[in-house]
Structures are given as structure tokens and as C-alpha cells.
Amino acid sequence: MEPDDEPGGDPVCWAARVCPECGAFAEAEPPTRCARCGAEIPAS
Question: What is the pTM of this model?
């Protein structure tokens, strides 16, 4: 298998969905609120 043919991993852009307060992963694109702690997850 050529290096370019290898499947990629998770996209880096998902980092914006991590709650800055508790680290939970948001199901919706920011801006949104964390389902675990209620903190605002702002748009990047």
C-alpha cells in the first residue's frame, strides 16, 4: 500500500467541539452549549 493510499484518522477540525470547561465532545457544531456542564462552546 502506498503512503497516500492509507486511510486517514479523525479530522483535526473536531477539536473545536471539545468543551473548554469539562472536555466533553459536543454533538453539534459550535456555537453550542455543552450537554454535560452547560458551558458555552464558541465558534472558532
Answer: 0.70
Q: Point out which residues pair with 25 in neighbouring strands.
A: 18
pLDDT bin (cut points 50, 70, 90) of residue 41 is very high
Kindly list the domain boundaries of the chain, sorted by start residue.
Answer: 13-44
Nearest to 21, CA basis, from 5, 43, 44, 42: 42
Looking up cell 483535526 gives 12
